[in-house]
Each structure stands twice: as C-alpha cells, then as structure tokens.
Design goal:
The structure holds 2 protein chains of 2 kinds. In chain A, 37% of the residues lie in helices and 13% in strands. Chain A has 16 helices and 11 strands. In chain A, the strands form 2 sheets. Chain A has an 8-stranded mixed beta sheet with strand order 4-6-5-10-11-9-7-8, sandwiched between helices. In chain A, strands 1-3-2 form a 3-stranded mixed beta sheet, sandwiched between helices. Chain A starts with 8 loop residues before the first helix and ends in a 10-residue tail after the last helix. The mean pLDDT of chain A is 96. Chain B is mainly alpha-helical. Chain B contains 3 helices and 2 strands, in the order αααββ. The model of chain B has no long low-confidence stretch (mean pLDDT 92). Classes of the chains: A alpha/beta, B mainly alpha.
C-alpha cells in the first residue's frame, strides 16, 4: 500500500470510511511527517493533540456504526490567519505574539464540525502581505521544490499562503486553508504544483479571520487536486450571520457536481493578459491549456478586458487603505505585544508598540494606506481607485456576455529564489498581475498545475468564473488536471 | 510624486508608527517610488463612473435589537498586555 501521507483528502476520507486504515493511523503518519520537516519552516505551531482528538472521534464513531462526517479522518493544516480557540494565532507577526484566541473562526469551526482535525498553524507572509513568504516574523518558508540545475537555491513557496502550499506539496498535510486577497491562494498553489480555489467573495465567512483588506479577503482551500478542493470548499463555505458580507445562499454540492465535460462552454482568452516580457514557457503553457480545454469540448474565444493594466495600481491603493484601517486595532491595549518606553504617554505607547511589532512590508503598506486616505489625497487616490475598480468589474461583466469562463496563466513566472525580488517592492507586486483583477471583482478563480518549466519547477493555469460559478471553475480545472497528468513532486531533501 | 522626509514623518505620525530619522530617509524614496507607480491610475477617465461600494451585490441585513452575547469579560481581557480590576489599562491620559 502507498504511504498514507501520499493520499489526498478524498482518498483518506474514502479509505477511513471503508476501513482500509484508521483515522488514527492517518493522523499519526502526518504528525510524524510534520515533525520531520522543520527545515521547510511551514508550521508555526504544531497541534498533534487536535488532530488525534478528531481522529479518535472518527474511529469511535465508526466503531459505533455511526454515519461518518464529510471530512472524518482528514487532518488538515490551518493558515495562521484563522483564529482557532486555545491555539496561538499571530498572522506571522511579532505584534500578535502571545495572542491566543478564545474563539473559533467560522471557517475553522465549519471544518471541525465536518470532522477534520488540525495538524497545526501554517506560516505565511506577515498579515498576508507578501508574495514570497519572506515577510513572516518567524522566518521564510522554504519551498520543497528545487531547480534541477543542482544549485539548491532555496525557492519561494509563493505567498501569502506559502506555509499552506509548501506543506501540501511536501505531503505534510493532504489539504490546508488559505486566504486570498490579491492572489494569495492561487500564486502559491502555482509555485508549488498544487491546486487552490478562491471562491466568490462572500462564500466563506471572514469572521475570526485576521483582517487584511476586508473588501477583498476571501478564504479558500488548497489541496493536491481539484476534487479535494471541492470537498474542502463545501465544508468551509456557508452563510454566517456574524459576517455582514456573507452571502445568504445554500452551499452547492460541488464534489458531486464535478464534470470535466466542457461541451457547450465558451472559454475566453483575455488578450490583455499577454504582457510584455512574459517568458515563452508561460506562453506555451497557456496555449497548451487552451488546447486541453478545446479537447474537453469547450469553444475558445479571444476577449478583451481593457482595464486590466490598471488593476494592480488600483489594488495597491485599495488593499493598503483597508489594511491601514484594519490594522489600527494593533495598538498594545487589547491583545498582543506592548511597548511602553519610560515616561511614555498613550500616543507614544501606540507608536512604539506598532514600530516594534510590525515588519517592514506591513509598515510600508500601512503608510501607503494612511497616505492615500489622508485629507487632500483621498479623492485623487482612494475614490479614483474605487472608480477604476468599478470599471474592472464592468469589464468582467461584459465578457460574461460572450463566454462562461476565462483561462489565463496564474503567475508571470515559476517560483523565484528567496531574496531575488525582496529589495524591489514593485517587482514583487507584479507577481500578482494575473490574480488581482478577479480579486477586485470578487470572482471565483482557481489555479491548477499545468506542467514544469525548463528548471523543473511547476507552472499554474488560472480559471476565472462568473460570480457564484465555482462549479464551472472546478469543472474546467478538472478538465485541465485530467489532461495535464501532472504527477511531479519534489524530492524530499528536508 | 515627490515624498519628502517631512511627509513621511507626518504620515508615520498619522499611522501611529514611531520612525527614526534614518527610517524616514529610507522610506521617502521607497514610498515615492510606489506612489509614482500608482499615479498611472490618473490616466483613466472615470468622470461618469461611480466608485465601487460592494463587490458582490448583497443586502444589508438587520437583526433584532437584542443582546446575543456578552458576559465574557474574562475572555475579552484574556489577551490584554495589562489588565486590572476588570479593565484594560493604559498609561495615564488625564493629569
């Protein structure tokens, strides 16, 4: 039998249900593997007791002949942006060190109710700000992948959900939660050869998820394949009265609805996504993706999203503006760290606490956000960005009159080496050029692995769908997955 | 867009982040660079466009005006860096 840690979510669920192995055996196998992978720095906190308790509940239920829950026997990783009761949550920051939530985020609570257990809290970019996992206060996450040039340069696992992507690619967990504000599920999925979906804004509750940019943040699953993403998303999603932006709609049965037959579907190829200087390998992969979707029965049409080039600058006004407001709560009074210099007053305490507690990228974004929201600049920057956002959303509404889904590359390159881009914020921001527009429009979008570049590193394809059409996105993802036959995995060097 | 050191200091003070002289000098060109790049948004004609308020159409829900939680003072204070007598404590504000 294959090793248990080689199994995905569906295989574990089905195997436990059939009695091929116990939930305890699965939990033990992953716990051991997590413990042996410290070199990746993917986990900030390990919670074997949580995983074992969930496994015991599953094994007991099975022994008693009870019906098993949808995720019974499946241990997962939890991005450290989610608050889970009694387990430290830091969002990979210093300012939240020592914070232990007394409450459970709605998404994590939904997963536990579905029978899942938690292997631990996953490292990430600090407050989800970053595309490479180099902004964590607790050190970089190292991708399990290495280039095939023998150089062994440590590579970025993508960001901000880089602990999640690294852990899944290294088989430390079969699936994990991520959050996506401008591409933070899709880009790390692409960099590590796994799948991840950001659902429609409002599908997953943001309650108990440490906020970055509230009008963009959306939780979603990351896993090794499309089916596993569908299973996890079903468990995560759902209406939550505690989140005013939560959509009061039933959760579709995405797994049961999966079909890779795309007959009658029209796939749009946005011409503005052919950016200057895009590597030939990304171009070739995109063309390959087009051919795969045609093979699956879809019709392919070229479409135009004229405001694409303004999405990134709009995002880098809106996201920092919301972040500067959201992160105002970290002031050393109610939770986390406090710096109180001798003789300091309240304002000095705030300023000292925030200076010591936030990393450079977080400070940079708070300052940008504060600047664009300040008197005299608000209309020129923030209002203008929100107007451009309307135009970007309108571009998408117009293409939905001609096509059902869009196909693009996920990222403009394969994973880069750690340190390669960290000195140039704008070069780093450009990593999200293909993922940000759909985030601004709140649309469901997913990345699936399409192949390897010449350096032996994974490349991802992105599918963007209409609002609430996660099924269409998953189906097209499945069609690509079946044709790509992506089975590459990193050799265990850690 | 030129961001001078005085602007950086003012923004830092609005953001309640203490910065040193050296940090202000380092941040000024960095922020100028980012804001310069963002400036390209000014090219877009938005004269007849409404700014976005909700990304996915949704209704603002109302609920009955009743207490649905509360009585969890210990939990609320559990993570305070400093708490006394059931309150968050801060440095003296009023002399």
């Amino acid at each position: 039998m294959a090793e248990l840690t080689d199994l995905g979510v569906a295989a574990i669920r089905d195997g436990v249900r059939a009695g091929d192995f116990s939930a305890r055996e699965v939990a033990d196998a992953f716990i051991t593997r997590v413990g042996a992978a410290k070199a990746l720095n993917a986990f900030l906190v390990e919670t074997p007791d949580h995983a074992l308790a969930a496994a015991k509940a599953t094994d007991d239920a099975r022994a008693a002949g009870e019906e098993l829950k949808p995720l019974a026997g499946v241990p997962i990783g939890m991005k450290d942006l989610f608050c889970t009761a009694g387990v430290p949550a830091t969002a990979a920051s210093h300012i939240l060190e020592g914070f232990t939530p007394t409450y459970e985020s709605t998404v994590s609570g939904n997963l536990w109710r579905a029978g899942a257990g938690m292997l631990g809290k996953l490292n990430m970019d600090q407050f989800a700000m970053g595309s490479s996992n180099e902004t964590s206060h607790f050190g970089n996450v190292i991708s399990p992948w290495r280039r095939n040039d023998g150089g062994n340069a440590p590579l970025a696992p993508g960001g901000s959900s880089g602990g999640s992507s690294a852990a899944i690619a290294a088989r430390l967990c079969p699936g994990a939660t991520g959050t996506d504000t401008g591409g933070s599920i899709r880009q790390p999925a692409a960099f590590t050869g796994i799948s991840g979906i950001k659902p429609t804004y409002g599908r997953c509750s943001r309650w108990g998820v440490i906020a970055f940019a509230s009008s963009l943040d959306q939780a979603g699953p990351m896993a090794r394949d499309v089916r596993d993403c569908a299973i996890l998303l079903e468990a995560m999603a759902g209406f939550d009265p505690k989140d005013a932006t939560s959509l009061d709609l039933p959760v579709p049965q995405w797994e049961a609805g999966l079909s890779s037959d795309l007959k009658g579907k029209r796939i749009g190829i946005p011409r503005e996504y052919r950016v200057d200087g895009m590597p030939a390998e990304i171009e070739a992969l995109w063309q390959q993706g087009i051919d795969w979707l045609k093979d699956a029965g879809a019709e392919v049409v070229e479409v135009s999203l004229p405001h694409t080039r303004y999405a990134l600058p709009a995002y880098y006004i809106i996201a920092p503006a919301e972040a500067s407001s959201n992160l105002a709560r970290y002031d050393g009074v109610r939770y986390g760290q406090r710096e109180l210099p001798d003789g300091a007053g309240l304002q000095d305490m705030y300023a000292a606490t925030r200076a010591a507690g936030f990393g450079d990228e977080v400070k940079r974004r708070i300052m940008i956000g504060t600047y664009v929201l300040s008197a005299g600049f608000y209309d020129a920057y923030y209002t203008q960005a929100q107007k451009v956002r309307t135009l970007i959303a309108r571009d998408f509404e117009q293409v939905w009159e001609i096509c059902d889904l869009l196909l693009t590359p996920t990222a403009p390159s394969a994973a880069f080496a750690l340190g390669e881009k960290s000195a140039d914020p704008i070069a780093m921001y450009l990593n999200d050029v293909f993922t940000v527009p759909s985030s601004l429009a709140g649309l469901p979008a997913m990345s699936v692995p399409g192949g390897l570049d010449a350096g032996g590193l994974p490349l991802g394809l992105q599918i963007i769908g209409k609002p609430l059409d996660e099924q269409g996105v998953l189906d097209a993802g499945l069609a690509i997955e079946q044709r790509a036959g992506f089975t590459a995995r990193p050799d265990a060097w850690w | 867009m030129s961001i001078d050191i005085a602007t950086v200091k003012k923004v830092a003070s609005l953001a309640r982040i203490a910065i040193t002289e050296e940090e202000a000098e380092r941040l000024a060109p960095e922020l100028a660079n980012i804001l310069g790049w963002i400036e390209q948004l000014g090219e877009v004609d938005t004269s007849s466009v409404q700014p976005m308020t909700a990304v996915i159409p949704n209704h603002l829900r109302l609920r009955d005006d009743v207490v649905t939680d509360g009585g969890v003072r210990e939990q609320v204070l559990a993570n305070a860096p400093q708490a006394e007598h059931g309150f968050f404590t801060v440095p003296k504000v009023i002399e």
